[in-house]
Specification:
The protein is of the alpha/beta class. It has helices spanning about 1-35, 95-105, 130-145, 160-165, 200, 235-240, 255-270, 275-290, and strands spanning about 50-55, 85-90, 115-120, 150-155, 170-175, 180, 190, 195, 210-215, 245-250, 300-305. The strands form three sheets. The chain has a six-stranded mixed β-sheet with strand order 4-3-5-9-10-11, with helices on both faces.
Amino acid sequence: MIGNITQAREGESQILETLEWLWDRIAEPVLTKLGFTNALLNTNFSIWPRIWWCPTGSLSYLPLHAAGYHRHTTQMSNRCVIDRVVSAYTPTIRAMKHTRNILNAQRTSEAHRALIITMESTPGYARLPVARDEAYNIERAIIEQGIMGDVEVEESPTLAYMSHQLPGATIAHFACHALSTIEPSDSGILLVDETLKIGAISQMRLQARALAYLSACNTALSKAIHLRDECITLSSAFPVAGFARVVGTLWKSEDRTSYNVATQFYSVLWSDVTRSAIALHEAIVQQRASHPLEPSLWAGYIYSGC
């Protein structure tokens, strides 16, 4: 037990050191060049400046939005990205332009519908005992807000079900396991019978302004080292398929933390998908406040899109 605790602390320390290196070498010079030189005290994140990161190569695997000095006293709080700006990611500038063109062309044609997918048990993978609670808690939060016209929770969906239901969703939330493979097109969301693969997702005609929340492990991670500059991941496949906004994870997410982040996210979102980046930023800030020396719990969540 002592060995496990020591190993965990060493792992967290390595992440914190990496975040500090990212701040010194990349994030601080960029923010200074843009004029974002001070921490903001106003907690109304909707008026904060926004920045889009477009990393390539090995940087695609690192949380630039979380760069900074998180383990020091308050006088160091000015030296963190999340205390200065609200971050988002885009795989390419062309992808962002494409998404914005779609949004401008289809502003009023969509019905409001939330689809929540949960897979508590997947053969060959660890159980997700909190996934079901997460799904129904989100359903309740959305219904209580009274904005969505239809909210549906589906436990253990099939590929046929997803192929039929996903194109009609304004919000699609996945509380399940994901698969990241060396061959990008084989990566996907694990369902009860098959995998909802990136290739199939990219062929769907989805709601233009929709949000995909991927509360699953490694949804923003690509294992295709030979294609790392192309940043082919689940998080990048959903925008290609039509989702304008995507929340994903860079690494394995702890079950209870996933529940907490998602719950906070939807309480701030208020079913307004245009607030997605702000909602995730606030959820990350709250998790950091509770676990400042455990960045593995909060630094891996990223937002991609407009």
